[in-house]
Design goal:
One of its GO terms (molecular function) is cyclic-di-GMP binding. The protein is an alpha+beta fold. It is 20% helix and 42% strand. The termini are far apart.
């Protein structure tokens, strides 16, 4: 992260994703979902608490990403921010994931909640289609 006028900004843009894996810290392992990802770091959501503090070294293992090493930068309400090690192979692995496996993820829950809140029903497709001879 870079700092400009006391405002912290990311070095690389993160993209939303839905990748499942695990985080290993010392002898413990926790299942996680990777929420967003960039070549410099990731945000994770844990299923159970991870007993590690900021600055702890961890390993992330996911099927489409492989093994990534990094440092915990923040923890809040079951979510963890990881900064990947500069000397690791993380940049190549994340770039490969985006090239071969990544599919753009849109926030599905927010759309469903919005429709329910406004109580708007969509007309059926058959009612909107008209055939002209």
């Amino acid at each position: 992260m870079s700092s400009n006028l006391k405002i912290t900004a990311r070095k690389a843009d993160r993209k939303n994703c839905r990748v499942f894996g695990s985080v290993k810290y010392l002898n413990s392992e926790v299942d996680v979902r990777i929420l967003n990802l960039s070549v410099t770091g990731a945000a994770l959501e844990t299923k159970t608490p991870l007993h590690a503090s900021s600055g702890s070294k961890v390993r992330i293992e996911a099927e489409n990403l492989g093994l990534l090493e990094g440092i915990i930068r923040w923890k809040h309400n079951g979510r963890i921010g990881i900064q990947f090690d500069v000397n690791s192979n993380a940049r190549a692995q994340v770039s490969s994931y985006f090239r071969f496996f990544h599919q753009e993820i849109r926030p599905v829950l927010a759309v469903r909640q919005l429709r329910a809140a406004t109580n708007v029903e969509r007309p059926s497709r058959s009612a909107t289609l008209t055939l002209k001879p």
